[in-house]
Amino acid sequence: MIQPINRDTLFLQRKARLATPADRAVIQNLKDTLAAHRAGCVGMAANMIGADCRMIIAAVGPGALVLVNPRITAKVRPYQTQEGCLSLTGERPATRFESITVAYLDEQFRPHTQDFSGFLAQVIQHEVAHCDGVLI
Length: 136
Ligand SMILES: [Zn+2]
Hints:
This protein is α+β, with helices and mostly antiparallel strands. 23% of the residues lie in helices and 39% in strands. The model has no long low-confidence stretch (mean pLDDT 96).
């Protein structure tokens, strides 16, 4: 179900709790809400749609990748960039890493460890920061 975008910075600055299988409905809500904002949005964290669990979605081509309880375990080659956020106004500076390793659960709560680089890595870093209550 498409959810309203949360712009309450007090809520957004809270660290999200670990997601459990009881939070499965949030996965579909993230997919539906990202699809509704796809023109101007490449990723989303659960707290941006009012759910306080640790879960993110990133657009990949026409589809989307859902990462449950994502944790960045390695990051290399920092760079400076500017980012926008659906929950905030305007663009802001951010330090990101060209290549990251992420431990996460997939939609079926199966564990994975995967390397990401380039733009997808940037999106994941932005959304994982949301899970930690960190805004750009
Ligand atoms: Zn954001």
